[in-house]
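for the writeup, i need someone to sanity check this before i put it in the appendix. the sequnce is what the collaborator sent (i think, or maybe the updated version? ugh). structure was predicted straight from it, no edits. if anything looks off just tell me and ill rerun, i have time this weekend
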Amino acid sequence: NIFGDRLAFICELRIEYEDGTTQVVVTDDSWRASKSPWLRTEVYDGEVFDARMIVDGWCDPVHDASGWDAASYVDIDLSLLHARRSVPVRLHERLKPVAVLNTPAGETVLDFGQNLAGLLSFETDASAGTELWFQFGEALDKDGNFYRDNMRTALAEIKYVCDGKRRRYRPEFTFFGFRYARVTGWPGTLDPDAFTAEAIY
């Protein structure tokens, strides 16, 4: 929480029905909350995501949230809220790996052929509890090994814990500057078609 000492959520939904009536749904103390699969998500350090915590159907109208925690109301100064001041960031290109490198240090590294700001998405059905670890970098060192010293203290990583189901994952709350992604923990032979770099700007 580098932007404050706690997290909060505010929204207002305006629903327009076909009969012309309107309903307004706002965040209040009738809402309920539950832990999500995102165990950490941060712009410099990346995401830790545990797919075993996914509640399938949680956003369906008939989902039973009675076991969820009651949300607490937070009184904040609404004058602190501002609409977006910049143009939207959008997905523009998808890139597949141009090579899977086995470096002199014994690392498995995906090379996407160009530096980009964006996301790594992938598909896996690895067994439950398998931890996949992806680290991001912009260059290789003089020996052809994965290089991250220019990242200083930024972790720039994804840690994904599998739940045994086939799922496609992409980060929701972070992005990376990278050309290369070091892959650790991938079971069996790494299929480059399972990975896509998504350039955003």
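Residues 128 and 162 are 5 Å apart (CA to CA). The radius of gyration is 20 Å.
thx in advance!!
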